[in-house]
Amino acid sequence: MNRRAVLIIAALVILAGLVWWALRPGGARLSSPPAAVEALPTPTPAPEQRIMLLFPGRDGRLHPVLRTVALPAELDQRAGVVVGELLKGPGGRADLLDAVPWPCELLEVFVDGRGTAYVDLTGPRAPLAGSNVELMTAYSIVNSVLLNCPELHRLQVLLDGKEIPTLTGHLDLSRPLPVNKGLIASS
Predict the structure, then answer these.
(1) pLDDT tens, position by position, 35-82
(2) Closest by alpha carbon to 58, among 98, 104, 100, 103?
(3) Could you tell me where the DSSP H helices lie in 24-51?
(4) How many other C-beta atoms can be found within 10 angstroms of the C-beta atom of residue 180?
(5) Which helix (H) or strand (E) holds 118?
(6) Would you tell me how many other CB atoms lie within 10 Å of the CB of residue 106?
(7) Rounded to an integer, what is the distance from CA 28 to the centroid of its chain?
(8) For residue 116, what are the CA distances in angstroms to 82, 83, 113, 125?
């Protein structure tokens, strides 16, 4: 036999062996390698920043409480974090009252293109009384959000998804309110 015929026979034997090995049960399968799965990026946590929350005092003024929180870059989420911290209360300070004098939850915060925030809370189960209760509740929320979110200029409080004319009949809440620094106690 000539050398060429020996090489052809050897190549056929090797090829037959590879086909048998690939097709036998439990053997290696000739397939394309699995596609590389791209790992999703891990979300970067929001940076921690100090915020100033304003809680009503027994003297009828708003008093600052500083907290360090993770504050997202998105304006509506930032405002939501501020309101969420207000709803946690003044942190055991006996000289301060809750910002909202009824058990409530934050339903939603949204921001329009003109710098107005809308904060939707669950409403009180019973009517509230007193002009100071209304003033302190509204401006605890308004001042805390607007002073921590300088891109915002006004804030409107909504209850259960609806505009409200007033809480106790003394302050017009049917429209967005600006910051009122005159209610903040001096140090």
Answers:
(1) 666 777 777 777 899 999 999 999 999 999 999 999 999 999 999 999
(2) 98
(3) none
(4) 14
(5) strand 116-121
(6) 17
(7) 50
(8) 15, 15, 7, 27
125: left (phi over 0), alpha (psi -120 to 50) or beta: alpha
Q: What is residue 45's three-state secondary structure?
A: coil
Residue 77: both structure tokens together: 């989420």
3-state class (DSSP) for residue 52:
strand
d(CA 57, CA 1): 109
Supply 105's token pair. 């939850």
Count of Cβ atoms closer than 10 Å to residue 120 Cβ: 19
What does pTM read for this prediction? 0.76
Instruction: Please answer whether residues 97 and 88 qualify as being in contact, where contact means their C-beta atoms are separated by less than 8 angstroms.
Output: no
pLDDT digits (tens, 9 = 90+) for 123-177: 998 888 889 999 999 999 999 999 999 999 999 999 999 999 999 999 999 999 9
Sign of the dihedral defined by the CA atoms of residues 41, 42, 43, 49, in that order: negative
Residues 134, 136: Cα–Cα separation, whole Å: 6
